[in-house]
UniProtKB/TrEMBL annotation:
The keyword Transmembrane helix applies. This is DUF4034 domain-containing protein. It comes from the Bacteria. Keywords: Coiled coil, Membrane, Transmembrane, Transmembrane helix. The chain crosses the membrane at residues 6-25. It comes from Streptomyces nojiriensis. Residues 28-64 form a coiled coil.
Amino acid sequence: MIGLYVLGAMLLFGAFKFLRGVYYIRKAKRLEAEIAVIEGRTEAMNAETAAAKAERKAQQAAAVVALGFVPEAELDTDNALPVSPEQTAAVAAVKAGDWEAGAAYLEAAGQDWEERWQRMRPLSEAAAEDDAWLLAWRAARPSDPSAALVNADTGVLVAWNVRGSARASHTTQEQFRIFRELLLKAQEQAREAQRLADPADPVPYMVEQSISQGLGYSHEEYGQLWAQIMKRDPKLLSAHTNAMQYWSQKWRGSHELALAFARECAAKAEPGELLSVLPLIAYIEQELHESDLKPETFFKEPEVVAAVDAALVDLAAADPADWRSIRLRHPLAWFLFWQDRDAEAVEQFRHIDGHIGAMPWRYWPKSRYVYARDWAVREVTPGL
């Protein structure tokens, strides 16, 4: 009897355990179902929130566009200002094989060396893609200083296209080898252009500035090159902005050397000569390459604010018809945005909007420009 009692008890206990297991399994399933419902509701709420945010963002963007600003999709990231019809026609002509149109376009700059530099580059870019027309030009006029100039600049562009824009750690040794070979060839071409040039023309020496970065000219060698440029045109804006790259930490200098060079050049300039852009470039490069610097604090430091104020005075003194002023307006808009000077920032954004192939925007996706522009516009527009 006792054995039967024990056996019954064991069976009863086993049944209890089984039923308890079934209970917990069912409870777990109910909990899982409830959790799934909760997660589904959470995902739906998150989706609704994201959709609401996206809708709000789209409405804000549309409101800014309604005020006359350019939609993000239509921003030109290649040019700092609208391309002239003359440039468009000249580039189209040379691509069709008409080198004489390119020669006439470049010669029309006369002794406006800044204009000659700006006209040379789109021709060089066209030749870097297909140089048949340039070869025909050089064959027809072997001693033409303009043909030699474009040839040298084309060589530089081809070399840098091989090098690419990636950091050294992401560039192959084979790329570096070919890059150096091409730059050495471009150096010879630049020296030829310098020999053929008008003795007053600094542009062939400016072509060598990019070569100096890639080949690693010593400071003494670069000083000699700089002296050749300065004795021909001591206030040439593009030459100075090119020099800022050489003196930057990412190439052959340091933040300290770049800022010292920038301040010295800006201090020597007269109001309206726009060299006040140089310290702004130095600060941008420093903030980009020092991870512990944050623009919301660094750009509000007294010395940076003073540099921005000086640049605004310089800009106000410039000839309103001077297209070079756009190169100062681009960084000014960025600094004024970070300094919470939104009304002043919006004034600059109105001048530059539509064409953002300039410092500092060229370092980032165009969404960075749109964010800064739209923020400043919303801050100064009631109800936006």
